[in-house]
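Side project, low priority. Logging it here so it doesn't get lost.
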Amino acid sequence: MIKIPSHKHPVIFSVGINHKTAPLEVREKISINEENLPDVLNCYKDVLKECMIISTCNRTEIYGVTNGSGFDSEYIKHKLIEYTGAGDTVNPGHFYELILGSSAAQLFNVASSLDSMVVGDSQVIHQVKRSYQVASENGFTGKVLNQIVQKALHAAKKVKSSTSLFEGAFSISYAAVELAAKIFGDLKNLTALVIGAGETAELTLDNLIKKNIKKVYITNRTRKNAEDLLKKLNGSGTTECEILEFSDFKNSVFQADIIISSTGASNYVLKYDEYKKIVKKKKGEPVLIIDIAVPRDIDPEIDKFGNVFLKNIDDLNSIVDDNFEKRMSVIPEAEKIIRFELMEFLNWYYTIPVQPAIQFIQANSNGQAGSQIKEIRNFLTENIAGIYNKITFGAGSSNEELNHYYGLIEKLEQINQSFNRQVNGG
């Protein structure tokens, strides 16, 4: 638990659940659809100055900035559990808690896909960007989140352009299709059903077509979205594509050898009792169902039927693509890029309390101003490097990091006061 006393300076923190701290059955209960993000953000408007929520298949994480009043991380967890009604499944022990530099490092690693379940997931940059846009559009961002997200995305783009970490556009969708290919081998004589029409469904469909699958049925609650999805593909090669009405797609499920579902539904789109009628039409033929939605789309009880192989998003972690080893080999290179951008952010963040003074100093070109800037830079260089090392090697607790932060701020203010006395002849 993180407790932050009332303090005039902003403290950045993150509280969340991800694939490292909780299994799918927990993560899906705390997951938040994009349309509901503003409501959840509103839960924290009285206790936080800034707030952003990243909620994907792998994580639900809250990044916030304190407003100067006392702060307790248990309140953040409680409100999230209360809003999602997940109290029967989720408990505070499923959450991680980070503050200051450790929290910043978490966001940088998330944006660059180093913290993804599948390292190199090509969707993550867009997910972080969209989460920030929602927070910004609803008035929940300010100078701290603006700066950290800008730096984190800049680092992610540099990792993408300067390394091969994202090579091959690897994603959960890619892993799902690779799993199908491992189980069935050649897909050219098979039929798939894709449920959903969002970005994940688009990538899934694209990867199925690249495997020259014979036919793909597409269904979505809003038919126009499915139609738009087909238009985006710019042709489907040898694959025949057909849209099914969502209200009627269950009558055609038996024709599919592979079902891949990725909707944003809050309830199962295919239930046990419904599939019980379908399975009779399969006449013992095997079917692979891959549920990559969070919350899950497919009733897990369906796995009890013979010749049905039901996999969820956590099962895809072991899927290795041809570029896996190459991506793993460039992680140190990616970390180097992240370190540089993170250090720049920390240098900016830790000087927020004395930025007006620094701007004044920089506007004066006399010798005193030059020595003052040098003293501040030397002080930051020594201390920020130490902070980064503690973050990297996991040394120290949140309370120790907080005390260190207050100590740094006090020292910076002392340097500033000393300079003011010199300038004013005091």
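Brief comment: The CA atoms of residues 173 and 203 lie 6 Å apart.
Revisit when time allows.
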